[in-house]
Amino acid sequence: MVPQHEVDRAVWYLANTIPPKIMDSVRAAISANPKEWWLFHHYGFGAWVRGILRRAGFDWSEAEFGALWGSILERAAAQEGGKLLPAKEEKTDLQAGS
Predict the structure, then answer these.
(1) Distance separating alpha carbons of residues 73 and 14, to the nearest angstrom
(2) Residue 33: which domain range?
(3) Would you say residue 98 has pLDDT above 50?
(4) Are 18 and 76 in contact (CB under 8 A)?
């Protein structure tokens, strides 16, 4: 399981790394399909996001990246003024088992 402080660090990293125009596209995708937007972008855009995080030194398993990238990006897209917004209370399948 990825510790919450690592997830928070990844959110902050993406919020401060991904260009605003791309974040606008992310927000539009989320707004168009809030529950499943990530499913349609897992292999293309999701792979790009996971690559950014890997190159930044996030050393998580493929399963952890796959389970977390969408919620991390959602939180990053919601950041305002550099403030780190709290995580939702829901848990991923990987977190639920622990």
Answers:
(1) 7
(2) 23-82
(3) no
(4) yes
